[in-house]
Design goal:
The protein has 706 residues and is α+β, with helices and mostly antiparallel strands. The chain is built from 17 helices and 22 strands.
């Protein structure tokens, strides 16, 4: 059982005994002191009681016999007799007259007090108050307690001294035996450490080889230099980037190996002199690096310090990362951001401008209709009106160019034979030019889902660029072919359009910027033509590529998804008006547009009701429905800035009358509602500005369907 007690428990046991003895002595001393104090206080109370009885008797006699002159000397003697005990004494008559008062009114820390009423006549009384000081009793108790504590301290220190002496002897003996055992264990550890060091050296050799393999596999170039800038180690990627291979780099200054320049500058960037190596926290800088074969690339250069235990720089790791592809992606994203910002502006301008054009072209249409059979002056007026109408058509084409940038818009797609659109657009812009135009289309060229106006604009812009590149004339070839593109396991039929010129070509540095808004190499160019082309093709879920060599011409290749829908062809007979009868509600917030639209509808034989916004339209429609006066058709503007527009209005109208027939109209032709009007409950879409004949045919088509 004794062997089961640990050495630590044996060492603690004497101290436990000492603590117990100390606590017992403390308890005994406190009990003794408290008892002594209690006895002293009891004795003081008995003395005070006896003295008060004596004082009461004497003072009663003096007061009764009117011996007032004897009271003060008597009480002075009594206070002097008990000077150490009497802390305060007061004899006051019932009428407030003070016979005698001694001592301070504020009590000491330890006291007892008594108050006695003395009735010395039928109508006279006095009050005797005495406060008895017990400080001596308390002081005696504390002194006794301090004396006991001093004795206890001396006893405890003596015991501690002899106890520590005995324990030190035991501890020294135990330490000697432990030291011998530790020496044996140290010898064993030393032997084991020597074996482990051998293993560590073998592992270091393996890790060194692994490090070399890792460095060789990294795409980033890694160069280790000392604090003076001389190369200690390189990996294969760094050797490939710099063109300095193998041991040729070791020992050279890093500025001899890295040919660096600031972007947009030809001044040499000295890495050691720049202070980049000394910056803390891992400095990074983007530069242009030129290799020995004179090729330039964008690189990101980062430096990290190697320090010793004293936090002193002993070397620097230079990491070179090729960011040429990343820069290209960033430039593409910047280009898209510019197009998006331009689209927000263009959409708003085009919408407002089309409303203005609607008022102009509509009135021109009505004026032409008023001249039934032009002759003489009327023929000249008809010619003037026709020229004005053509000018508004050109202005409408301009707004369509702006709308190709509109954010969130979609082209109005129809399955179309693209070869006809290409011939019509290319012939128009090359008319009268010294250009030999050749077409080469496959006989079974697939139809494509396109917006005829937008794709025609693409062809016109590309052909105009080709014509300007061939200032002295030349040949322009446009080909169309079917293709299959694979994306994983999916095969997508595509139509490829190639436009090849024999012009001056595009410099290689400019190829990455030709689709940027406002980028142009022409003195009088706006820089929007190819940006429009890029935006339109992207909206058609296609892509456009360019190949060019200086002095040999350029080739633009357009990839468009093919369509399996039946071909839609434009109406050819637009000369006659289709008239009818019925009631038509016209809603537009623009007064001029609403006025001319109402005139056109009346010209076609219909009764017209006007509304300036959606809430009024719903009110009029519900009122006519309750009065059983059928509204055959509603023509409503899509966008009403100060009220309910067409999209919300048609939703509520269909709730009122599921048979409601409505046509949506907007100058923002690329809005998704215009492109997919059937999904929103409309029967047709009418793009502003529209002519009287276009309105006539659309009204006839919608009413015939009903």
């Amino acid at each position: 059982m004794a062997n089961s007690i640990s050495p630590l428990a044996k060492d603690r046991f004497p101290w436990v005994i000492l603590v117990v003895v100390f606590l017992l002595q403390s308890v005994i001393g406190v009990v003794f002191s408290l008892n002594q104090k209690r006895e002293d206080i009891t004795q003081a109370e008995e003395n005070l009681t006896a003295n008060l009885q004596l004082l009461e008797t004497i003072l009663y006699a003096d007061l009764q016999n009117a011996g007032y002159q004897e009271i003060e000397p008597f009480l002075d003697n009594w206070v002097s007799l008990y000077q150490s005990r009497v802390d305060y004494l007061d004899l006051t008559a019932g009428n407030g007259f003070v016979f005698f008062r001694h001592g301070r009114q504020e009590p000491t820390d330890h006291f007892i007090s008594r108050t006695v009423a003395i009735q010395y006549s039928y109508q006279s009384s006095a009050t005797l108050s005495v406060r008895w000081n017990l400080t001596d009793a308390h002081f005696t108790a504390r002194r006794t307690l301090m004396l006991l504590g001093l004795i206890q301290l001396i006893t405890t220190l003596t015991l501690v001294f002899f106890l520590r002496l005995a324990m030190q002897r035991k501890r020294d003996s135990r330490m000697l035996s432990e030291r011998a055992r530790d020496l044996d264990l140290a010898n064993q550890d030393l032997h084991q450490e020597m074996e482990e060091r051998t293993v560590i050296e073998e592992n270091l050799a393996i890790e060194k080889e692994q490090l070399q393999v890792t460095l060789r596999s990294l795409e980033e170039g890694v160069i280790l230099i000392d604090c003076r800038g001389f190369i200690l180690l390189t990996n294969s990627a760094a050797e490939e980037m710099t063109g300095c291979r193998g041991q040729l780099c070791i020992g050279k200054s890093i500025d001899e190996v890295l040919d660096l320049v600031e972007e947009g500058s030809e001044s040499v960037f000295r890495l050691v002199e720049s202070g980049l190596l000394l910056k803390t926290g891992g400095a990074t800088k983007e530069l242009v690096m030129r290799s020995l074969d004179h090729k330039s690339r964008f690189v990101s250069l980062s430096c990290s310090h190697i320090t010793n235990d004293q936090d002193e720089i002993t070397g620097v790791v230079v990491v070179i990362r090729d960011i040429t592809k990343t820069r290209s992606l960033e430039q593409e994203q910047h280009k898209n951001s510019m197009l998006e910002a331009l689209g927000v502006l263009a959409g708003g301008i085009a919408h407002d401008f089309n409303n203005i054009l609607m008022a102009i072209s509509g009135n021109l249409n009505m004026a032409q209709e008023l001249i039934q059979e032009p002759s003489g002056d009327d023929a000249e007026l008809q010619d003037i009106l026709s020229n004005a109408e053509k000018a508004t058509d050109r202005a409408a084409d301009l707004t369509r160019q702006l709308l190709t940038f509109a954010k969130g818009g979609s082209p109005i797609l129809d399955a179309t034979a693209i070869d006809g659109v290409i011939r019509e657009s290319a012939d128009f812009v090359t008319h009268g030019a010294d250009i030999h135009l050749e077409y080469d289309f496959e006989p079974d060229l697939l139809p494509v889902l396109i917006d005829r106006h937008q794709i025609g604009q693409v062809i016109q812009n590309l052909v105009i660029n080709a014509r300007q590149a061939m200032s002295t004339g030349g040949s322009l070839t446009i080909t169309g072919s079917n293709s299959i593109e694979k994306q994983g396991d999916l095969e997508t039929p595509m139509v490829l359009i190639e436009i090849t010129d024999q012009g001056s070509g595009i410099p290689e540095p400019d190829l990455g910027h030709i689709f940027d808004p406002y980028f142009t190499t022409k003195k009088e160019g706006s820089g929007l033509g190819l940006a429009v082309v890029h935006s339109i093709i992207a909206r058609h879920q296609g892509r456009i590529e360019v190949r060019s060599r200086l002095g040999e011409g350029s080739t633009f290749t357009i990839h468009l998804p093919a369509s399996r829908k039946a071909l839609s062809t434009p109406d050819q007979d637009m000369r006659s008006l289709i008239r009818g009868t019925g009631r038509v509600l016209v809603m537009d917030d623009d007064d001029a547009v609403r006025l001319i639209t109402c005139r056109m509808v009346r010209e076609l034989g219909f009764e017209v009701i006007e509304a300036d916004q959606g809430a009024r339209t719903i009110e009029l429609y519900r009122d006519h429905l309750q009065r059983r006066q059928t509204i055959d058709l509603v023509i409503m503007d899509l966008t009403v800035p100060q009220g309910m527009g067409g999209q919300e209005t048609i939703r509520q109208l269909l709730e009122i009358d599921p048979e409601c027939r409505a046509i949506v109209s907007s100058g923002y032709s690329n809005d998704p509602v215009m492109a997919n009007h059937l999904d929103y409950g409309f029967k047709a879409a009418l793009v502003k500005p529209f002519s009287l004949r276009q309105l006539s045919r659309l009204l006839g088509k919608v009413l015939d369907q009903s």
